[in-house]
Each structure stands twice: as C-alpha cells, then as structure tokens.
Design brief:
The chain is an alpha+beta fold and 635 residues long. The chain is built from 19 helices and 33 strands. An eight-stranded mixed sheet has the order 16-20-21-28-25-24-22-23. It has a five-stranded mixed sheet with strand order 2-1-5-3-4, sandwiched between helices. Strands 6, 7, 8, 12 and 13 form a five-stranded antiparallel sheet that branches. The mean pLDDT is 93.
C-alpha cells in the first residue's frame, strides 16, 4: 500500500505496517529517537497500524509535539511509582498542562517535600527498567472488571460516564494499568529529564462538594539542559514576582478592602505617569486627539453595542433613578457616542481618537493575580474612524506605532491574526472583507504572523501582539481590531464626496492594553531595575555625614531644576547601610558626597553595576538627561 510522508513524498510499504515499522524503514537510527507518529494530523502511538493513503510523519524527541506525549507518559510513570510506594493510593486524573503535567491522588498520607524525592527516585528506577508501554483496547465490561480488581473507584466512575458500547483504551506498563486515550511513548526509557514541582489540594472533578484530593505537579523535557533552563526560569520568575517587588519598591499594594482593585503608591503613580506621558507624546505626534468618556453608562447603550448580550456576566451594574446602568468594561461605546456628537465629512477622516479610560470587569476572586488580573484598570484605547480605502494605511500606521513603543522598551514580539469566532455579529461578506484587509496590511509590511482561527472579537477580526520578556515568557498586550459592526449599531455617518451619507469603518487598538498589567510585566522584565527614563527615582543622594548635608542639598536642588527625579537620604546612619538600602531600591544612580566632593565641587556616582566614577555635577546632569531623552535601555 502507499502512504504519504510529511514532506509530501509517497512511499510504498507492506500492508498493516505500524508506525514503528515505518520509522525503521525510514532510518535505522530513527527508532532510537522515535516517540510518536502523526497520522492524518492526529498524534498516535508508534504501535498504530497504518492504512492505505494515510499521511504520516514520525516525530522524535526533538519535535515540539512529542513533548506533550513525553509529559503525559511521565505522569503515568509518576502514578506507577506512587502505587509502588503507597499501596493504598487511588489514581484520579493526570493530564498534561502548559510546561508539565499533574496527577490527582486519593491517599490518607499527606504528601510532603521528602515524599516527592522518594517518588522521583522510584520513577528513575522505572525509567531504567525500560518498561514497554502497551495500549489495550477493551470493552466497557472488561475495563470495569479490571479497575474493580484494582480498587480504582475514580477510574470506575470515569468509565461509567463514557457512552454505552464504546470501546475503551487502557495503557499497561509492567504491573501498572491506567485508563487513557493516549498516545504514549514506546517505553519508559524515553523519559530523559523530569522533576516533581509541588503538591496542592484539588477537589475531584473541580467540585467543592466532592472529596479533596492531592495533586502533584511535575514537568518533563527532552533533555537535562532544557529542564535546567526551565527550573532556572521558574526560580528567577519567583525573584522577579511583581507582587513581591511592587511591595519592596513601594509601587503598589493590594488590600482586602479592595480585592482586585490595586492601590498605587506615590512611586507607582510616578512610573504610571511616565508611561502615560510617553503615550501622549507619541499619539500627539501621530495625529491623535484625546477624549474622556463617563465611567458609567445606561443599559440602553450596552444593548446597542452588544455588550449586554455578549459580556453582561463580566459587568458591574447598578440602578440609578429606576434605570439600570453599568460600569464600562470597555471604552468603545463611549467612543462611538463622541464621534456621533457632531457631523463629519469624508475630509475629516481618518479621525484618530485616543482615550486612557478606566474600565471595570468582574473577575472571579480565584483568578485575581496582582496587577496581571484585576477588576479595574486603565486601558490605552484608541478608535480610528476611517474610509474603506484608508484601512490598510491606518493599520500600517498603528503597527509602526506599536513597534516603536515595544522597541523602545526592548521587547521582541510576535504577531497573531485572529479570525471570526462562532459568537459573532455581521455578515459573511463583512467578515471576509475585514479579514482580507488585515492580511493585506500585514503582507504589505512583510510582518510575519500566525493565524489563530476563531479567536477574533465578536464584532471583528484582530491582530494581536505578543511581547517576549527577558525570561522568554510571552504576554499578549497590543491588539488591532477591525470593526464593521459598531458603526452600524450606533448609526455612525459621514458625508461622502457624492454628498450622500456613508458608514465609517472603525479600528479599535491598544498598545499597553491594561496599563496596570503592563507595569506588572515591566517590573518582572526589568526585575525592578527600570531604565533611567522610567525609574520612579532616578538618583539617590547620600552624604557621608551630616556636616556635608548642605552640599548634598545643593546637589539635590540642581538635579530637581533639571527635571531629574531625586531623593535625599539625610538620615544619621552609617554610609554603608544607606548604600545597601539604596541598592535594594534599585535606583539607577547613587551619589555619595563627602569632603572630597565638597572641595572639588564634584559628585561620586555609583551605578547599578557597582561601577564608581567621579563627575563634575553639570557633566553628570548632562549624562542623566541624555539617558532620559534617548530612553536608553542601559540598566
């Protein structure tokens, strides 16, 4: 029979050949690394029998798709190890998750850190045993009988929930058998690098009325080097946690009186305002005007926009004078009303309208996370009202603006085009036109992108920008959304060259997204060591002793005159102590003044790399102002 390989070539092979046999046909060495097969776009075990005209690729440990299979198999190895060590343990479920896996267990003995080390040791024994992992296709009755014999009550419940008459797949590795759809690696020896990370509680099936189980989280990678890098990243991320640094650097705080509503402290407000000032400067240069719309608007508006039907569960509502109102979760409807407030001609377009709008969204308490997931935040929105022939040029203009901001902050980014979701408004023709316009704009500027099918907004397709931080983590921030719907729903108009009324087309776009969330990303990206132009305190002045305070105060005043953010530590403490505290505050520059500096009319400057240099004060001021002006990233 014939099968087609991933590269498009057709190969003639024996009937009933397995994926593993095919791997051997392709290369004598390949079976040593072959993990799983991809047949007609679906991952399957290497034992899978191939059929005529199947499209097949053999994946090895070096293929990204194989990693999920390796992690899933590692979860089974962990369960086998636990069953060996704790005979009474009952297995629940053990799926893969981003960067790893978990497995839930019912066991009276509470797992502690020492247990994880014992389990890892037993897992390594299982891996060395090179146990073959076999798929068993059985009937419902056979599966129930087997799990009854093993006293696996959670597996029995799962089997009973499966449709009647459906064949069930089990996986056997030595004495251990598990209910699983697969696929899996050929044997335990293919697991090369893993680590058990933590233990947590988890209700069976996520229902708080059910029994609390113990969940063990783990991770696995193709090799030790990749695992070590991941562990390093995890540990580094803990050090950079914006909640921890935000408290230490006195940027913001979280209080029980306002869950999901962060309190910004003076230094945090200074940082936020610096970002906003930069945003305003760029938008002024790019021809935007700025507006401000009410924080609360009536139900009728949200019905017109569609949010009442598509987003009501995330909105805070109230009744005023017998009429229902809602705090705005988005700025868009208010922006539509601003446009509609006066008459427009085609000569007015494009009209670029920005708004730093405060929005509120109801988030579940369990989802709240520092500044990353909040219930109130500032969105750097803009709405561009334009003619159909202006779509591509305006999209390109927005892309260039986003690129400038991210490049200035040192972020690399990737781009994703999200297309029509199932829950959408508008005609096929409108959606096709909108998606085609976005694709043409991306192609015109040769910007690489991937397509995310069905993830667009309910009113239009979008381009999402994912920035990558210094730890290699991705954050979705900027977005450009093309909208043919709200202009219709709000009956927006402009007078065309023909003297007739026409509908404008709207671009919705953000660069930071949530400014609060973006600040959280910046804190972690820079580990609190902000570049000088962003730093809430750019220079900290310390005097060797109180007798030099007069000169230190003159230095402070001169820095302030030049718009440099400065603090003076005039406490009667030892200099070494004050220097350590200033370093912990991560200020870009520490100035120390003593007798030598007073006599020479100079300043002794220490940067964050612990490099020391003596400057004439005017030269240091010039240096700092140049860093601020050029927005240098030299941290």
């Amino acid at each position: 029979m014939n099968i087609r390989l991933q590269d498009g070539t057709v190969k003639s092979v024996d009937d009933n050949i397995t994926a593993l046999d095919l791997a051997r046909v392709l290369s004598n060495s390949l079976p040593k690394k072959a993990v799983v097969a991809e047949v007609n776009g679906k991952l399957v075990d290497l034992s899978h029998k191939l059929q005529e005209n199947d499209e097949v690729s053999i994946l090895t440990v070096d293929d990204e798709k194989s990693l999920e299979v390796i992690r899933h198999s590692t979860a089974h190895i962990m369960a086998q190890a636990i069953k060996r060590l704790f005979k009474d343990a009952k297995c629940a479920i053990g799926p893969t998750i981003e960067n790893g896996f978990y497995y839930d267990f019912d066991l009276e003995h509470p797992f502690v850190a020492e247990d994880l080390l014992k389990i890892e040791k037993e897992m390594n024994k299982i891996i060395k045993e090179n146990i073959k992992i076999e798929r068993l296709d059985v009937t419902r009755e056979e599966a129930l009988k087997l799990m009854n014999e093993r006293n696996e009550s959670y597996k029995i419940e799962l089997i009973k929930d499966l449709p009647e008459g459906e064949n069930i797949s089990l996986y056997r590795q030595g004495e251990y058998v598990d209910l699983c759809r697969g696929p899996h690696i050929p044997s335990t020896k293919f697991v090369k690098a893993f680590k058990l990370m933590s233990v947590a509680g988890a209700y069976w099936r996520g229902n708080e009325k059910n029994k609390m189980l113990q969940r063990i989280y783990g991770t696995a990678f193709k090799d030790k080097e990749s695992l070590d890098h991941y562990i390093f990243t995890i540990e580094e991320a803990k050090k950079r946690d914006h909640r921890k640094l935000g408290k230490e650097l006195k940027l913001f705080t979280l209080m029980d009186e306002g869950p999901g509503f962060p309190f910004f402290l003076p230094k945090g407000v200074t940082l936020k305002n610096t970002l906003i000032d930069y945003w305003r400067e760029l938008h002024n240069e790019a021809g935007y005007v700025e507006v401000e719309t009410p924080i609360m608007l009536n139900k009728k508006l949200w019905e017109t926009s569609g949010h009442w039907y598509h987003y009501k569960e995330n909105m805070y509502t109230s009744v005023i004078d017998g009429e229902e109102f809602a705090l705005k979760p988005m700025n868009c409807p208010g922006g539509m009303l601003v446009y509609k407030n006066e008459l427009h001609s085609y000569r007015d377009l494009p009209l670029r309208v920005g708004e730093l709008g405060r929005v509120h969204r109801h988030e579940l308490s369990g989802a709240l996370h520092g500044l990353m997931r909040v219930r109130a935040f500032t969105q750097d929105d803009a709405h561009i009202f334009m003619l159909p022939e202006q779509i591509e040029s305006e999209i390109i203009g927005v892309v260039k603006l986003i690129d400038k901001v991210y490049s200035t902050l040192g972020f690399k980014y990737t781009v994703e085009l999200s297309t029509r979701p199932k829950d959408s408004m508008g005609t096929d023709e409108e959606w096709n036109m909108a998606e085609s316009a976005l694709i043409r704009a991306l192609n015109d500027i040769n910007l690489p992108y991937v397509v995310n099918e069905g993830d667009g907004a309910f009113y239009g397709p979008k381009i999402d920008f994912h920035i990558q931080d210094s730890l290699g983590r991705d954050w979705q921030c900027g977005t450009i959304q093309l909208d043919f719907q709200l202009p219709q729903r709000f009956e927006l108009e402009y007078t065309g060259q023909d003297g007739e009324k026409h509908r404008p087309i709207v671009i919705h776009r953000v660069i930071f997204g949530s400014i609060e969330r973006f600040i959280g990303i910046l804190i972690e990206n820079f580990a609190g060591k902000f570049p000088t132009w962003l730093a809430p305190v750019q220079v900290k002045v310390l005097s060797v002793s109180s007798k030099f305070n007069d000169y230190a105060e003159k230095v402070v005043e001169e820095l302030k005159k030049n718009d440099i953010k400065v603090e003076f530590d005039n406490r009667d403490e030892k200099l070494g102590y004050k220097i350590r505290e200033a370093k912990n505050e991560r200020v870009p520059y520490i100035i120390v003044v003593g007798e030598k500096e007073v006599n020479g009319n100079t300043v002794s400057v220490r940067n964050r790399k612990d490099e020391e240099k003596e400057y004439a004060l005017k030269d240091f001021i010039y240096h700092v102002k140049d860093e601020i002006k050029t927005k240098s990233l030299d941290k």
